[in-house]
Amino acid sequence: MARIGFVGLGNMGGPMARNLVKAGHEVAVFDLVAEAMTSVTGASPAATAADAARGAEFVITMLPAGQHVRDAWLGAGGMAAASIEDAVLIDCSTIDVDSARAVAASAHRPFLDAPVSGGVMGAEAGTLTFMVGGTSDAFARAQPILAQMGRSIIHCGDAGAGQAAKLCNNMMLAAIMGVTAEAFLLAEKLGLSHQALFDVASKSSGQSWALTTYCPVPGPVPTSPANRDYKAGFATALMVKDVGLAQEAAAAAGLETPVAAKALELYRRFAAEGGAGKDFSGIIEMMRG
Ligand code: NAD
């Protein structure tokens, strides 16, 4: 059993913290929203992030974006000032690579960037994939804790490598979902049923996670967000954030990524037309319109 501080208890952080409580750890939690803290039964609510971190062996953050993470660790009264010399700091948020490296360089403690894939369903089931950047020593210490929230824990390299992997992964996902949605719309026009396209493509070279786990039309995969009017799941606003970060990273590296640029343009339009809070696979509705 370990003492763990957990900061940021939203759609993802809430179920992740609950899994750590279930595994028998002593968990202190902090969120700006008080109800988010009481939703983690068995954890101790703290008055500040630094209070949640105090005395912890592991401190985990799951926050919206880079600025929140910089503030939580390095800002006035941030956790870097808390006396947690022996703790391993683990940021599971999806943020820009520069922020991850800046916090790692200034934290003066072992720090891992460990963003996740698998969505809210994966967070609840404890089956997330963690992609981790940081030293081998910090990774070895954190691995058993991450394994209680996830199924695949992958060490990607030094600080920032976890975020780099996450941005590249979500850039692929954004474009693949977009073209998968277009293929279902083309099938409709050609008189081919959704189920027939699914049956063929899921066993052919068009196969992908976007098709077989997250199918953008209702029916073939009963658990996909399409079956619940694209509610919950992975919000389009977050996809816009992630592909935007990938585009910024590509631009900074002098790399042209026109396919991802087009995907970002489409998700931005969907978000602006009312889809920001819907699952990103709902982009098929905008395309159909
Ligand atoms: P969310 O908005 O549901 O939760 C964020 C939580 O952080 C909120 O409860 C908010 O009150 C809290 N918060 C914000 N600033 C804070 C601060 N300074 N101190 C303490 N608490 C603070 O977001 P989410 O869906 O849980 O996503 C969190 C991160 O995980 C994001 O970076 C997102 O991109 C990433 N992610 C999300 C999903 C998903 O499917 N939702 C999947 C993979 C990765």
From TrEMBL:
<comment type="pathway">
    <text>Amino-acid degradation; L-valine degradation.</text>
</comment>
<feature type="active site">
    <location>
        <position position="166"/>
    </location>
</feature>
<comment type="similarity">
    <text>Belongs to the HIBADH-related family.</text>
</comment>
<dbReference type="InterPro" id="IPR036291">
    <property type="entry name" value="NAD(P)-bd_dom_sf"/>
</dbReference>
<dbReference type="InterPro" id="IPR029154">
    <property type="entry name" value="HIBADH-like_NADP-bd"/>
</dbReference>
<dbReference type="InterPro" id="IPR002204">
    <property type="entry name" value="3-OH-isobutyrate_DH-rel_CS"/>
</dbReference>
<feature type="domain" description="6-phosphogluconate dehydrogenase NADP-binding">
    <location>
        <begin position="3"/>
        <end position="157"/>
    </location>
</feature>
<keyword id="KW-0520">NAD</keyword>
<feature type="domain" description="3-hydroxyisobutyrate dehydrogenase-like NAD-binding">
    <location>
        <begin position="160"/>
        <end position="286"/>
    </location>
</feature>
<protein>
    <recommendedName>
        <fullName>3-hydroxyisobutyrate dehydrogenase</fullName>
        <ecNumber>1.1.1.31</ecNumber>
    </recommendedName>
</protein>
<dbReference type="Pfam" id="PF03446">
    <property type="entry name" value="NAD_binding_2"/>
</dbReference>
<dbReference type="GO" id="GO:0050661">
    <property type="term" value="F:NADP binding"/>
</dbReference>
<keyword id="KW-0101">Branched-chain amino acid catabolism</keyword>
<keyword id="KW-0560">Oxidoreductase</keyword>
<dbReference type="GO" id="GO:0008442">
    <property type="term" value="F:3-hydroxyisobutyrate dehydrogenase activity"/>
</dbReference>
<dbReference type="GO" id="GO:0009083">
    <property type="term" value="P:branched-chain amino acid catabolic process"/>
</dbReference>
<dbReference type="InterPro" id="IPR008927">
    <property type="entry name" value="6-PGluconate_DH-like_C_sf"/>
</dbReference>
<dbReference type="GO" id="GO:0051287">
    <property type="term" value="F:NAD binding"/>
</dbReference>
<dbReference type="InterPro" id="IPR013328">
    <property type="entry name" value="6PGD_dom2"/>
</dbReference>
<dbReference type="InterPro" id="IPR011548">
    <property type="entry name" value="HIBADH"/>
</dbReference>
<dbReference type="Pfam" id="PF14833">
    <property type="entry name" value="NAD_binding_11"/>
</dbReference>
<dbReference type="InterPro" id="IPR015815">
    <property type="entry name" value="HIBADH-related"/>
</dbReference>
<dbReference type="InterPro" id="IPR006115">
    <property type="entry name" value="6PGDH_NADP-bd"/>
</dbReference>
